[in-house]
């Protein structure tokens, strides 16, 4: 188990070096590995703006693929497996005003089965996650490309949504985490079995462990983990404990890391 430093470090968070990366368990090539990866434990899905590749984890063989029209799928960012469906967060990034949609695919064939338009929202949809019978979404905001006037990365939200994708509650991200993500935002997020929320930015090789606050509207930063992949969307492997999938977009690789356990205050 590993105790991690939170926001009380002496060195400014936006200047501190990233922690050493967690051990890499597996690397798999996939030309679609440009935005993120999702796993059902048997297969890994490589995500790009307008295409998806399905690969068998056991041998790296490409099983299926999907290619969409770029005008309809300008920016898919992350996906998650829910039952027999691959549920993906999509937006019109970097166009503004920001609009978003949920795109759903059949995991067996990768056929696109439906689209749920969310229209204008509090940011660009970068994450769709299923946890505790609810949908969890990240609406990202940016200080620059893809951002809207008057809203930078500080306006990024984690939202809990009902089955009709209506926002029930929302939280902002801690200032020290946002400083590490700037000028971009949260590109990936996945709930861990330990009850913590794990989030990534756009380009740093780091994963931020967060938790819902007991009061207020700001997520609590529990610690920061190093990872051998520079940001982008992530997903926990449901069959391999503490194995987190990410991507290295420069190498077009899916990267599985065996992450250390985060020790929360009061558990030491």
Can you walk through the features of this model?
With 268 residues, the protein is mainly β. The chain has a single domain (24-258), classed as YVTN repeat-like/Quinoprotein amine dehydrogenase (Methylamine Dehydrogenase, Chain H), CATH 2.130.10. It is 3% helix and 45% strand. It contains one helix and 20 strands. The strands form five sheets. The chain has a four-stranded antiparallel beta sheet with strand order 1-20-19-18, with no helix packed on it. It has a four-stranded antiparallel beta sheet with strand order 2-3-4-5, with no helix packed on it. Strand 2 and strand 3 (43-47) form a beta hairpin. The chain is globular.
In short:
The protein has 268 residues and is mainly beta. It contains one helix and 20 strands.
